[in-house]
Amino acid sequence: MDVDGAAEDITEAAWVKLLNADYVDGGLVRAAYAEPRLRQLFPWVGMWELHFSRCAEIPFTWDVPYIAPRKGGGFRVEGPSRSESVGVADNAEAAVAIVADHLPPGCGPAFAGNRHELAAQETRG
């Protein structure tokens, strides 16, 4: 299997796992999966937050905003760093749209490797 195909398979398997998980908001995961620009990224969950990585192995990239539940309902879109607030949304679809609108330039399908290997490949061009 080629590297791009491997990353695609790994990413799809991660999405399928999250689509069937009970430890993250299912509506949020379904909304994110429905957005092609996010579906091509590797999804992961930490602290009830839905994150998206440009690579499919740990350590993940940390350059895409993430979605966190908001106390009282709705969602916060933050990041890429924990000190950055991008916006708030009353529903999952709106939160997903905010993330999609704030993707880094050239954000494409997840890379089959970790963030260090991705950075090395991007440096080589």
TrEMBL record:
| Pfam families hit by this protein | DUF6193
Q: Which InterPro entries match?
A: DUF6193 (IPR045682)
Protein name (Swiss-Prot/TrEMBL): DUF6193 family natural product biosynthesis protein
Record the organism.
Streptomyces decoyicus
